[in-house]
Amino acid sequence: MKRIKLFVTAVLVLVSTLAMAQNQVTGVVTDAGTGEALAGAAVQVKGTMTGASAGADGSYSVKVANPQDAVLIFSFFGYKTVEVPVAGKSFLNVALETDSTVLEETVVVAYGTQKKEAVTGSVSSVKGETLASAPVTSVDKALSGKLAGVAVSGVSGQPGAVSQIRIRGNGSINASNAPLWVIDGIPVLSGDVSTAANQNSTLTALNPNDIESITVLKDAAAAAAYGSRAANGVILVTTKSGKEGKASFTLRAKFGMNWLQPDSGFRMMTASELLRWQRAAIRNAGTDPDDPAAGGYYRPLSLLNGQLYNPLREFTRIGTTQEYEIGASGGNARAKYFSSFSYQKTQGVFYGVDFQRLQGRINASYKLLKNLETGIRFNLAYTKQADVSMQNLYYVNPVWAGETLMPWEQLKDEEGNHVSIEGVNSGENPRAAAENDDKWEKIFHLNGTVNLKWTPVKGLDIETRNSMESFFQNSRHYYSRKGHANSTANQLDNVDRQIHQLTTSNTISYSNIFAGAHSFRALIGQEAMRYKSFYHETYSPEVDPNMPYHTTADQTTTEIGYGESAETMLSFFAIADYNYDNRYFFQANFREDGSSLFGADKKWGSFWSVSASWNAANEKFLKNVKGVDLLKLRLSYGVNGNNGIAAYRAYGLYGTASYNGITGYLPSQLENRVLSWERNKTVNVGIDFGFFQNRLTGSIDFYNRKTVDLLLTKQIPLTTGFSSIFSNVGSMRNRGVEVQLEYNIIQNANMLWSIGGNFAYNRTKILDLGGDEFLGTDVRQVVGRSMYSYYLYDYYGVNPTNGEALWVASIDEKTGEKTLTNDYAKARRYYAGSPEPKWVGGFNTQFAWKGLSLSAFFEFKAGHQVLIWNEHHYLESDGFSMDMNQFASALNYWKQPGDTGVLPKPVAGNTSNSNDWTIDRWLEKADYLRIKDVTLSYTFPQALTQKIKIQNLRLYVSGLNLYCFNDVNFWDPEQGVTGMSAGAYPMTKAFVGGIEITF
Amino acid sequence: MKKYIFFTILAVAAVFSSCKDFLVEEPNLAQSTELTLSTFEGLDKATAGAYAPMASTNWYGAHFILDSEMQCGNGKRWTEFSKYNSGRYTDQYAVHYTPNSTSPLWGQAYFVILSANSVLEHLNDAGIEATDAEKNNLKAECLFLRALAHFDLVRVYAQGYGYTADASHLGVPYVTKVDSEAKPARETVATVYKNIIDDLLEAEKAMSPDYQRGGSGMKDAKGYANIYAIQALLARVYLYSKDYQNAALYAGKVIDAKDESGKPVYSLWQAADFKDAKNYTADAPTGGEIIFEIYNNTSSSYGTGLENCWGMTSYKQYGDCGVSKDLYDLYEDGDARKQLITPDPDGNALFTLKYAGKGLGSVDANNVIVLRLAEMYLIRAEANVTLNPNQAVEDLKTLATSRGATPATASVDYILVERRKELAWEGHYWFDLARLGKPMTRTDISGNVPTSIDAGNYRWALPIPDREFTVNPNLKQNEGYNEN
User: Fold this and answer.
1) Measured between alpha carbons, how far is A549 from A536 in angstroms, rounded to an integer?
2) What are residue A952's phi and psi, to 5 degrees?
3) How far apart are CA A428 and CA A420, in angstroms?
4) Which of A124, A726, B14, B377 could lock onto A147 through a cystine, CB 3.0 to 4.6 A?
5) DSSP string, B257-308
6) At A379, which helix (H) or strand (E)?
7) Dist. CA A304–CA A306, nearest whole Å
8) Which residues of B, range 151-180, sit inside 8 Å of A by Cβ?
9) What residue of A is the nearest CA neighbor of B173?
């Protein structure tokens, strides 16, 4: 700050000696360090819309209405903005200083922040504002495609659903593959906590607008400080803090709508298409569809004359989103605060699906004494998730019922109300269920951290952070007879669950600079965590529909359930950083973790990493080379752990066994006293660069991540009494490369055009399964292959002469010649594909002109397959499903000899297994490119808004998931990490518009 | 300043001192092994539960019994009637086993051994509140179960005792410890028998003479081992290992057993008891011959389902395990035991009625007799052929009289036939042939199955399951089978 003032004063002295002219002010804008002209620098007359930009030689010319009072604002990307009073002069030369804050950008890392330049591990970070505009209910959804090597996939598009995040591939078979989420320094719970709802992500409690930044720690060195649970990477979320200054308030409002629309041309058959197809199938089975004696196969054309429905249209609607938020922040020398309060309501595209969130946050800090500071970060959220059962082929599932119901089946009563009718869809009408049932889940989620930091001497920080995270869940599933024609009773099921996690994290760190160039930091710390969850479930098979509570049930029939789980962890760790002259950087981490999940003899695991980097740009030989701002080589190696398994797997357990009328005990699980941590050993080599005043920045990383001591069920001699024991055997590997690039094509005062992108290539290979060749049945883990291999029967195609399905029985190894068969039982089975994308990434472009900004963001995955076998089995069934609608693609069937490249001819009651589940006919290439987000925004000029005391006023509209280029014959190519889903809520498209006011 | 340091030290001290317990989270809802075995009640229930897996179709519930009967010539697959050819028990009938398709007893028996060892290892832990007598009774039960399991294992997976002069050929691993890391080698048959006898003798010593497991809800007292079950098994094991002195002694202990009022504890069935096989189909028999049996009904954890002894031997279900004419023709007319073999309603194929079921419904069940009095008479007779021929003649006469049959001559060969007639379909004849080193011969067969197997042929010892060799390098496969 002082330097800026000095500089401004110097400029003032300089320009005051050159004073003269009246209206026109001219001059040259140069770089203060090099004296070079700054082409494109912006000059603006303060408080007006008048401005100009400097030419190629740095010269500018601008008209000033009142030369005595006017102030010129000079700005240029990468330089500090200065305001210079004209003071009656007509000639003003200005030298701009480079803005070191741009170059010395800091990133949040484990247990602290680091200058970006000093980071030795592999990290990616993203600023909060790039996440906040998307109308998502949880922030994990917004990370998709933003960070190199971070693959986000969803199964469900339901508001509140979880995402599956994989950083550098799958590294485990039985233990968790999900990264650790750390919010403001405290590991938090992540994943699905639903009880009655289809899915409920813990992260819905977090308001994306509260996020300052997200950093993803990818390699062992970066993550090692969280060693214990860092094997799958760490996602560090930092929420906003207040800044010293006047209180500022932010108001946000957002409105949107979402709808269902597949982009691959996928659709169901129309009534006439379906009837045509069915009649063909019935004729192929040798029956006359016009013969009333054909029973179930009597399908006269007159079916089309009755009331017809489009069931999908009946069960879906245009969903809506609304979100309101008010925030306040500010502070003084002693106290700082940031607070927000928000409400969001999203109505899903299916009737009955609703999500609401009420959320508040306070982040405050207070200096108790000169060297003692305390703070609190507290987030409180209430969410209510209502839905109907999905994610499986339930009759009541609206997407499945919408796909399967035949258009001539009746859905409404005479008054036009949706009703469930016996005999139609097994008596289920999803919309009637949505209207008559109660199926919801409420969660009160509290997450608070209190910290106390004591700085007895400069450079020495002693800090304790203590946090509590609690979920109070209450769910109700009232299953009404009215909503289900086949139901015999009004059933009620309630679940009350609590989850509590207490964490204490205590650190002592010391940093100092010796002899000018030796910079040093050491940190030691201790952490302890206790997790406990329990639930009570109450189920009554029959309650009074007028008073649908357990009190009206026959108490002798009411069933109760109870479950609980507990886990503890204790850790000690140390971090040491050393940096010489901003050229050589070293870091070492060590961490000792104990977990209650493991065997009595092996609860403790040691994790560590070493890393180094060299910033060549700061070497003498490059220091004066123009255009090279950052050129850093990084190298790291480390070992991290994974304890993502269920509780009590190490214990020997007894179950019950009935014999001779008496219930005795029998061993049910062998004790494994040496069950211990799964370990990841990661080597990372990376390079970070910034060229041309950092107009081109990026990084490239290569890694080899090997998982050893995989937690698997190991085969053991039966003489032990058991055939297997859960233990540490086996290994697997992930290798890949990640590239992240950003380039500002145009950057000047009025205009900015930037492009950026990232992609990652990853291959997973299972090396050892503890003696087994493979695990699993249809989706297997196979030694020498990747995490998931589809093991399928080899469908060849249709026999052009008779329209029957043909199978490959065998392939001659030498000639490659295929032996075909029409007998499914003789078909060969092989490893047909895998759902793991080889390529994952995204790219974006932003164009800004004055206050107007247009940005677009694309996301892609490639090199993988999906297997939507459930839906295809029934809905491209070759006649197997005669009481279900079919995919429109099923119309392309064999009709006459010579037809090839078509589906087998439909035969009513198809028994040929041509539509079996485990066949490669359903395997589809899942490559896709998605237009994830296009946002147009306008920020009103401050000069204008300040007149009404508004600092910032921004309007925007966004389109989300506007189009997805793909060839998958289904709603969406995203089918989760296993590439298989059934009856999932499809991904939706959305438009939102919003306004943001800061005053 | 001092205050902060004080609190810091206090906090760190608190953390360290609570370290050890902090990382222990017990499963409250499942019984941890440690907890189960830390109270007498838990140990008692763990002992009661240890009987359960013996009812499995892998053991007494079907395979252990039926495999041996199909192998030895007592059984026949009446394949000319397709309704009795479900494809089950073909390999057993052909005595064609491979390491990938062999008797399922291996895993089942060692599971019971684990269950018994788990109790035995903790009975004397401090804090178990029970009298010495109570503890000793559990100990005896578990030793009995362990001995019985090993005995059945060594009979199935090893050559008969007399295969080598000193029984030094390969037996089975004798497991007496709970150890999930153990990769035990096979003991010699002699060692296995010695361990079995040691366990049984210790059990005999430990068990109170009047001990009988009970409890509310118990169906069948004979479903649990008592002192006579231990002695009866000892008699059989001694006979197998050719210790005739002790075989006769222990068989006598059971035959002469008297209750408090001086009445014999067990008495031979009489001809009338065989009518409608009611001696074999009672739910909870009292009195009579049965010393120890495996109880079964449709609510048992093991042994339910259609593939149990009932389903396999009944013409009402699969009927793959029929009776050969070789066996049927052994019975003279008037022999009460002949009633236990019946033709099907069409009068074509023969079936045993020893597993005719308890009338429980479409899925029926029956108890499986392990030890009974008639066998004790036969053991004593065989043991006394040279030691005390008069006693042998007397015992054979007693038995024959109760069956309405002509007494057998007191020689090993004739007693073998008598054993076959008496104990048919109870899992004896194949093992009798094996221990005596006699060939198996059969004439009434169906399909392409061997009519004889010479003594000492590799087939007398079944292959150990293939998977064991991939996880236990110390194990050796029986001769004649591939070892991976």
Assistant:
1) 16
2) -150, 130
3) 5
4) A124
5) -B-TTS-BS-----GGGGGGGHHHH-SS--SSSEEEEE---TTSSSS-STTS
6) strand A372-386
7) 6
8) 173, 175, 178-180
9) A719
Whether A723 and chain B come into contact, CB under 8 Å, resolves to yes
Q: A583, A574, A581: which is closest to A612 by C-alpha?
A: A583
Closest Cα in chain A to B26: A648
pLDDT at A355: 94
Q: Is the dihedral of CA A402, A404, A408, A409 positive or negative?
A: negative
Contact map slice: A 591-650 vs B, CB within 8 A: 594-596, 603, 647-648
H or E stretch covering A560: strand A559-580
Contact A716 B180 (CB under 8 A): yes
Sort B81 into a burial class: Cβ within 10 Å, 0-12 / 13-18 / 19+: middle
- The answer to whether B36 faces chain A, any CB pair under 8 Å, is yes
Our CA-based measurement puts residue A576 at a distance from the nearest CA of chain B, in whole angstroms, of 21
* CA–CA distances in Å: residue B318 to residues B86, B321, B323, B351, B368: 6, 8, 14, 11, 18
Residue A228's pLDDT is what? Answer: 66
> Does A717 contact B114 at a Cβ distance shorter than 8 Å?
no
Q: Among B25, B33, B46, select the one facing A568 at the smallest CB separation.
A: B25
Q: What pLDDT is stored for residue A83 in this prediction?
A: 83
d(CA B384, CA A960): 94
List of residues 6+ apart from A626 with CB closer than 8 A: none
Per-residue pLDDT reduced to its tens digit, B251-290: 999 999 999 899 999 999 999 999 999 999 999 998 899 9
Bridge partners of A62, per DSSP, are A25
Q: Measured between CB atoms, does A457 come within 8 Å of chain B?
A: no
Interface residue of A669, A720, A726, A768 to substitute, partner B, most B CBs within 10 Å: A720
Is A721 near chain B, with CB under 8 Å?
A: yes
In A409-459, beta strands by DSSP E: 438-454
Angle at B452 between CA B446 and CA B457, to 5 degrees: 130
Q: Residue A453 corresponds to which tokens in the numbers above?
A: 């930091």
To the nearest whole Å, the CA of B455 is away from the closest chain A CA by: 29
Please list the ranges in chain A whose pLDDT falls under 70: 1-22, 49, 77-78, 99-106, 130-138, 225, 227-228
* Start-to-end CA span in chain A (Å): 24
Average pLDDT over residues B417-440: 97
Q: What single-letter amino acid sits at A330? A: G
B106: nearest CA partner in chain A:
A718
A652 reaches B (C-beta below 8 A): yes
Residues of B in contact with A725 (CB under 8 A): 180
Q: Is the Cβ of A663 closer than 8 Å to some Cβ of chain B? A: yes
Question: Which tokens belong to A800?
Answer: 């052009």
Q: Which residues of B touch A530 (CB under 8 A)?
A: 22
Give the integer Cα–Cα distance in Å for A287 and A908: 9
Q: What does the pLDDT read at residue A482?
A: 86
Average pLDDT, integer, range B151-160: 98
pLDDT tens per residue across span A359-390:
999 999 999 998 999 999 999 999 999 999 99
Q: What angle do CA B214, B216, B220 make, to 5 degrees?
A: 50
